[in-house]
Amino acid sequence: MSKENRDTLEVYEKLFQEYFNGTKRRIKNRGAEKTAIKAKFEHSFWFEGFKTLGNHADILEIGSADGLGAKALAEYGFNVTASDTVGGFIDELEKKGLNPIKYNVLIDHLDRQFDGVLAWHVFVHFTPNDLKIALKNIHSILRPEGCLIFDVQTRGEKSGEISEWVDYDGDYHLGAKRFFQYYSESAVRKIINDTDFKIIKFERHNSDSGIGWLRFVVSSES
Ligand SMILES: C[S@@+](CC[C@H](N)C(=O)[O-])C[C@H]1O[C@@H](n2cnc3c(N)ncnc32)[C@H](O)[C@@H]1O
User: Fold this and answer.
1) Cα torsion for 173, 32, 81, 201, to the nearest 10°?
2) Domain at 32, CATH number
3) Does 84 contact ligand 1 (Cβ within 6 A)?
4) 31, 39, 53, 77: which has the highest count of C-beta atoms within 10 A?
């Protein structure tokens, strides 16, 4: 586990309430209708990706934070396990009745197996070496023919792997800098190729805030 990820988790430990406030601000500023459209777009990528696993598949969400993703997956019918490693997030997930587990994908060992894993907006805080460790650990908790859905941020193909410590302005403002890693598509493909995962779906997406995202569905069947 990198120092970058550890220090970022300390920021979340202190400022989780600000993170929740940011989510509320974002929903308010974007408006209910636009928020619903954006959520539907993201959720359809997950539902489509997990479709082959069947409606009642066991899905682990890593880095659930305020639980919006876990809730959507549960409403769809999946048997969802929410998780996070930050105390304030675990408390919130418990309050929402999501029965979370405390799980740090870079250091914890899980004695359970899942059909699917979702890590959405989580690897933004992972160095390339963290990402390699996370993929290896996730592979070990997936059943054969299981799948992982994840995204990473990008600054374009030429940028390669660059990073910064930043506290974004506006709705994403937290009050302290977090570590953000940006990947090129080829850099992520190379990391995946060195694992036992196989890419089954890929999408590039530019959000309205100008941030680019690379979205992957990968299968544990090599
Ligand atoms: C930007 S938030 C995204 C939250 C949520 N998944 C979403 O889509 O809005 C990043 C999340 O990743 C979690 N996270 C960061 N490093 C982690 C690690 N090593 N293991 C598990 N979760 C981690 C944080 O605690 C936080 O909940």
Assistant:
1) -90
2) 3.40.50.150
3) yes
4) 53
* Structural domain range at position 25: 3-219
Number of domains in the chain: 1
- Decide if 45 contacts 203 (C-beta within 8 A): yes
* Residues 67, 177: Cα–Cα separation, whole Å: 23
CA–centroid distance, residue 186 to ligand 1 (Å): 23
Cβ–ligand 1 distance for 120 under 6 Å, the answer yes
The mean pLDDT of 104-112, rounded to a whole number, is 96
**For residues 120 and 63, is the Cβ–Cβ distance under 8 A?**
yes
Distance between Cα 32 and ligand 1 center (Å)? 24
Out of 92-96, 183-187, 204-208, least confident range: 204-208
Q: Which two tokens stand for residue 219?
A: 């299968």
Which residues make beta-bridge pairs with 206?
A: 212
pLDDT of the residue at 23: 87
Contact 211, 183 (CB under 8 A): no
Instruction: Give me the DSSP letters along 48-60.
Output: HHHGGG-TT-EEE
125 lines ligand 1 (CB under 6 A): yes
Query: How many whole angstroms from 126 Cα to the centroid of ligand 1?
Result: 10
